[in-house]
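Q: My labmate handed me this sequence with no annotations at all. I'd like to see what the chain might look like in three dimensions before we decide whether it's worth expressing. Could you predict it?
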Amino acid sequence: MTDSLEKALDYVYRDKSLLSAALTHRSHSAQHNERLEFLGDSILNAVIARELYAKFPDAPEGDLSRLRANLVRQDSLHSLALSLSLGGYIRLGEGELKSGGASRPSILADALEAVFGAIWLDGGFEVASTVICRLYGAMLGGLSLERPNKDAKTRLQEYLQARRLPLPKYLLISTDGEAHAQVFNMACEIERLHVRSEGRGGSRRAAEQMAAEKALEMLNFNTDER
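A: Here is what I predict for the chain of 226 residues:
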């Protein structure tokens, strides 16, 4: 059941019980993922801190802390969890399942941190770091101290405008889940460049942002580029 998740992570667990625990919500059983989430949160913060330290060698502590907080917040984790279709693997209690828990941002974000913690226990820090950096590649690549607050849609728009290209089109592909816990699937199309990317999110805006982020990655976008 979890083979496709391991493929998406590009990591195969030696101890499958760790992955099983990471995907078990407290509503399902007493052996749940909160301890692994605690570990994963620490590992994630350490990995992102190291990447930012290397990427911005002259940045002060305050700027690095602000960038890290933006990367490890629930919205960012939720976006990555959706890209992995993580909700389909989480084991939930009946009540939580019926109430749309598999799409709830907090549950998905916590489960992803637990997955990171389980990888650290299973393969070590550097292996966990490799997985995290691969998942965060587009977000890390899009960071800039000069323009830290601009989101992916804005950066993509500026990239295209600077080249006098038409703006991207955002199209709704589908919606999944119950009305109170919908997940939106959006496409970002740049016809002139033959680029099409897709994103998922708990709102149309979040899904568009993910699609824009992926489009930037496809364009090998550099946020320092003017």
